[in-house]
Design a protein that fits this description.
- The protein is of the alpha/beta class and about 425 residues long.
- It folds into 2 domains: about 5-225 and about 405-415, Aldehyde Dehydrogenase, Chain A, domain 1, CATH 3.40.605.10; about 230-380, 3-Layer(aba) Sandwich (Aldehyde Dehydrogenase, Chain A, domain 2).
- The chain has helices at about 5-20, 25-45, 45-60, 65-70, 75-90, 130-140, 155-170, 190-195, 210-220, 240-255, 270-285, 295-300, 335-345, 355-365; strands spanning about 100-105, 110-115, 120-125, 145-150, 180, 200-205, 230-235, 260-270, 290, 310, 325-330, 350, 370-375, 395, 400-405, 410-415.
- The strands form 4 sheets. It has a 7-stranded parallel sheet, with helices on both faces. A 4-stranded parallel sheet has the order 5-4-3-6, with helices on both faces. Strands 1-2-16 form a 3-stranded antiparallel sheet, with no helix packed on it.
- Helix 14 (about 355-365) links the parallel strand 12 (about 350) and strand 13.
- Helix 3 (about 45-60) packs antiparallel against helix 7 (about 155-170) and helix 10 (about 240-255) packs across helix 11.
- The longest helix has 18 residues, at about 5-20.
């Protein structure tokens, strides 16, 4: 059946009604539904992988890049990871109904806050079919309905995953309509979703910078913008060599297609002659292309078996999403901070140093959603942060920042308990 603007409105109404029912469900009911989802992912692996192979083949025929193909790819290991994340979400405390910040006023009123679901969360995303599972599971546990619209690149995978999720939560006695999937990649439908503020309380776009800007400009409901990561790792003058090599390698090579991968390596001039070649040789074995400023090129250029070239001005501030990295030598922590301020996207930034003062300055002065000392930026992830999974990584400051988990999908209401007080 062709999806139209009118039929999306019907889905919006259904999600709104289901969200009201879901908000009243017990934690045990929601956890049973999540366990069903995890089980379905594992029991129906073959069906999911066959649908994913169709998506991959179409994407290959379209000539999409290897980095895009990696974001589409599902395999047994990734499905097992998705199921594990769903079970981790089930194991987390339920935020709905939490009472906090309670205090007694001089007049005897007991005033505080009670955590409540947002209502209906909309998400428009590209490439990654795991987003279908992550957002559905987090919305389910936090008592929210959701409307999901994935990209055409993963339409077959998302169709199967959404069906499995709806069946699993229905078997647990929860409303199937709590998870709505827009089964049509027509971009015109995006415009319809962005005007559905009467049904969608929060929109979370996942994709490139241009797409996220478009959603933020056109949406009539609040939008959480983020996911674009121009991430730096700075090797300070007091950086331990072994840590520097391991962290730079992990941040760049472990999974270069993700938003928290290293894009630019900054190296203090006092250690550049020793640290840069050590990092570069490890990177070269993984096929990393290094785009170097003049001083980095003078150090690395004469070395054999390295893939180095002169950096262009546009290489600074670029999210490569591939085995490419900018490399720049700086003379001080101040210069590193200035570079990050100029070219960072507010996502994830790291310093490698044994100097406590430098580490604290970096933590204090870098304006990003996640700031690391002696650790890889690849850790910026909802599951790694103990959130089970994430609906996205916000690089803005309202209402959430960084990986968004259960609590970031809730609001609160003030509760006031009295014993007959009236205001004079």
């Amino acid at each position: 059946m062709t999806t139209t603007a009118e039929s999306i409105l019907v889905q919006g109404k259904a999600a709104r009604q289901a969200a009201k029912a879901l908000a009243r469900c017990s934690t045990d009911q929601k956890n049973r539904a999540l366990e069903n989802v995890a089980t379905a992912l594992l029991e129906h692996q073959q069906e999911v992988l066959e649908a994913n192979e169709k998506d991959l083949q179409v994407s290959r025929d379209m000539g999409l890049s290897e980095s895009v193909l990696d974001r589409i790819l599902l395999n047994s290991q990734r499905l097992e990871g998705m199921a594990r994340d769903v079970r981790n979400i089930a194991a987390l405390p339920d935020p709905v109904g939490e009472v906090f910040d309670m205090g007694t006023r001089p007049n005897g009123l007991l005033i505080g806050k009670k955590r409540v679901p947002l209502g209906v969360v909309g998400s428009i995303y590209e490439n990654r079919p795991n987003v279908t599972v992550d957002i559905s599971a987090l919305c389910l546990k936090s008592g929210n309905g959701c409307i999901l619209r994935g990209g055409k690149e993963a339409i077959n995978s998302n169709r199967v995953l959404a069906g499995l999720i709806q069946g699993a939560i229905g078997e647990a006695g929860l409303p199937r309509d709590a998870v709505q999937f827009v089964d049509d990649p027509d971009r015109k439908l995006v415009e319809s979703m962005l005007r559905m503020d009467q049904y969608i309380d929060l929109m979370i776009p996942r994709g490139g910078a241009e797409f996220i800007r478009y959603v933020a400009e056109k949406a009539t409901m609040p939008v959480v913008a983020g996911g674009v990561g121009v991430c730096h790792t700075y090797l300070d003058r007091a950086a331990d060599l072994e840590k520097a090599v391991a962290i730079a390698y992990n941040a760049k090579v472990q999974r270069p297609t993700v938003c928290n991968a290293l894009d630019t390596l900054l190296v203090h001039s006092e250690v550049a002659a020793r640290h840069l070649p050590a990092v570069a040789r490890q990177w070269a074995q993984a096929g990393v292309e290094m785009r170097c400023d003049r001083r980095a090129l003078s150090i690395l250029g004469p070395l054999e078996e390295l893939n180095v070239k002169a950096a262009a001005p546009e290489d600074w501030g670029t999210e490569f999403l591939s085995l490419v990295a900018g490399v720049k030598v700086v003379d001080s922590l101040d210069q590193a901070l200035e570079h990050i301020e100029s070219y960072g996207s507010g996502h994830s930034e790291a310093i490698v140093t044994e100097d406590y003062g430098a580490a604290m300055r970096f933590l204090d002065e870098v304006d990003a959603a996640a700031v690391f000392v002696n650790a890889s930026t690849y850790f910026t992830d909802g599951a790694q942060f103990g959130l089970g999974a994430e609906v996205g990584i916000s690089t803005q400051k309202f209402h959430a920042r960084g990986p968004m988990g259960l609590k970031e999908l809730t609001s609160y209401k003030w509760i006031v308990l009295g014993s007959g007080q009236v205001r004079t």
